[in-house]
Every structure is written in structure tokens, then in C-alpha cells.
Amino acid sequence: MNRSMKANHIEGASLAIANNEEIFYAKGYGTFADGQSVTGDTPFPIASLSKSFTALAVLQLADKGRIDLDAAYASYFSELSPRDPRVRDITVRHLLNQTSGLNDKINPDMTRTPQFQSLHEAKRLLNEVQLAHDPGTTYSYHNPNYVLLANLVESVSGERFSDYLNHHVFKPLGMYNTFSVSTTQQIDGNEAIPSGHYLILGRSVSRSEPLWFVDGEAGIVSTAEDMSRWMLAQYRGHLLSPALMKQYHSAGAISPYGIGWLADQDETGRTISHSGIFWTYKSEEMVYLDEQMGIAVMFNSGLNAFVNYSAFIDGITDIMRGEKPETSFLNGRNMEMIMIALILATLVWGLYAYIRIRRRKKRLTTGKLILITVGRLIPILILLSLSPLVTFIGGGRVLPWFGIWTTLSSSIIWLVVWSLVNFVHLACYYNVYVQDTKNGRLESFAGF
After folding, report:
1. Which superfamily does CATH assign the domain made up of 2-320 to?
2. Sheet with 269-277, edge to edge strand ranges
3. Prediction pTM value
């Protein structure tokens, strides 16, 4: 953990391991900004790992006969009057499996302005939205699916969603230091939580998490001790009836994403996993059901293109199995060093090319100038295309610009440097072209 954190410029982390019937390991690493040590009882936001808890709450009510997983979501809210009639075909199971027909493009999540203030507000989005796909036909990971599910739990149970989790999930499992918040503002204002960070050119920068409504989808804050208890409960089998427990840990009908988990199978047997993403916090969780082992890691640094957070889980798994963890060259520190070298090389090349352009003696034609201009515009075109490009790579997730910046900050700096160098070059080329044109006219005039 210490070696991997150092290699990725991570300031603080928390590791939870459940093994067989015991909390095998619960430990914190690193420090707060004031030098206070992170411990196994230090609370961390777990982001989208929260979805597994929301799914459990829905299944608990289904176990009691109060929710039908295959009933239409709208049947629980008579006041809904959706513009798109297909909304009435969205079932509770569709929401759980992320196959509701909603996605970030037609229903903003992280880019919504203003953000929701309550679960009841989120419910009203179904009146206005035009679905991207027919329900049940396409998998699209979309956070508001789980906001809608939290609202269903609140409506059916008659309890506030956070209270329901506390009374029916956290306390029964002995997770006494775990709680749920509605917005990221409640994370930023909690001094018990280590401040979040993002990474830029090899430096870890402290930053408040941008405002985001996260109730049901990503709002849980927990500790290593409590997450160990949570993972133990996954293979002890006491959470739900056997039939629903089997569904809880199974893949969906059209994708590996099932009811709040990614379900898979490896050489050791069945696995369930999930990752959690904020821009200044990150989490990873893997439970080996048949092997009866669970590993969760929480970080106070956010999503970054150069940090492979899942490698922490892989390394800990290797150690637990008596194997030597692999060390990859592709870590944050090495990749950031490559980016710094690339930025410096771009500046050196820029200076060299500038001198060559100024000393250019060969006449510059219009066609050549057009080709040079097109080539020099490549980095600025990449910058302008970052948002749709990230959305495509991210499976349709639409990120706010702050999220794109924190994820790709070093790459963006390089593209900006490259763009500025190219603009200087273009100015020089156009100056040479104008001078060549003037000289050409003077020669023609002299010849005449």
C-alpha cells in the first residue's frame, strides 16, 4: 500500500479485508493535511459503492412483499404523468440493472444545473425526459437510476432514505461509523473526512469536491472497519432470503451489471465488484464469494487517467493468496514524468522550429500554408473534442469540465502548451507568407 501510494502520489487511503468469518485487516495509510494519521476508523466517501447498499434496501422491501421488482416504477407514484409513454414501462429491475433507457445525454447528471435538492425533485425528471432507448433493451450506467430507487425506498418505507439505511442496514451489520449524505457539500464540510485531492504534473492538489446530488447513487461515507463488516455479510447469507440473495449477486439480463454489483466469475469462483468515482475521492471493492474474501480500498484522490486504482485490489489479492504482487511500470509517478518530459520536449521543439521558420529562405506557397495551418490546429481540435471523446470512451458518461480537468490535467496542459507553440509558429508562417507575397509583387513590378 505505501509503495503503491507513493508511486501514484496518493496522500491518504484506507484498506479493508474480510476473510472467512473475520475482519482480517482494517488499516489507514497516510495523513490528513494537519499531519493526523489516517486509521481504520477514518471515514472516507465510497462514492458509487453506495449503489450496492441502495439495491439491498430495495431488495429488503421486496423480501417483505412491499416492492415488486418487475412492477412498473410509475405504479408506485400515481402523480407521475410522463411525456414519453415508454417511461411507464420502466420497472424497478430495469433501474437496478441500469437498463431503464435513461442516460447522461438525455438526462444530465454531473452536469445538471442546478443540482437536485431532494429525492422528490429527482422523481419529477420522469415527467419531462425522452428516453434514449426502450426500457430493458440497452445497458447505460446512469447514476439517477439509483436516485429514483432511493426515492422508492423512501416512499414505500415511510422513512427518510438515510434513516432507512441507518436502521435497516448499517446498525444491523454493526456499521456504526457509516452514514449517508445527500450532497457532496456535506462531505466537504466534515472535518473527520480527509480532504480530497486531484493530481497534476506529479503533485497532489487539495480541492473541495464540486456540488453534486448523490443521495442513493453515491452518498455513503464509511470506514475500513465497517466496510469489512459489509463484505463479510455478502457471503454469510443473512441479508436476504436465499432466492433474493442469489439475484442480488447475479449479472443482469443483458450485461454483467446486475442489482448494484458487477457480477463475474474467475478461477476461484463467483465475484461481485464495484468502483466508486468522485473527482477528489476514489474507491474500489471486490468480493470473492466462493473464496469468502473481500477487499475494499478507499482513497482521498480522485479519478485520474494515469492511476490504476484497481491494481491496488489485484496486489492485495495476490498477497492474500500467498503470491507476490506485480509491480507495473505504468503508475502515476512514471506517467507524469513522461508527460513532463513531453511538455519540455514540445517547448524545445517549438523554439527550434521557430528559429527555422524565421531563417526560412524557401518561398511559402498558399497550398503549403494551408497544409501547415491544418496540421498546427490538431492540438486545439483535440482540446475542443475532449468532452465528446471522454463521453465516448466512458461509455456515454457526460463529465463536467472540472471532471475532465482533474482526470486529464497533465494531458490538457501538454495540449495547451502544444497549441500555444503552434499559434506562435502560425503567426511566423503567415508573416513569412505576407513578406513573400510582397517580395513577389515587387519582383513582378521590377520586371515590368
Report:
1. DD-peptidase/beta-lactamase superfamily (3.40.710.10)
2. 22-30, 12-19, 293-299, 282-288, 269-277, 262-266
3. 0.92
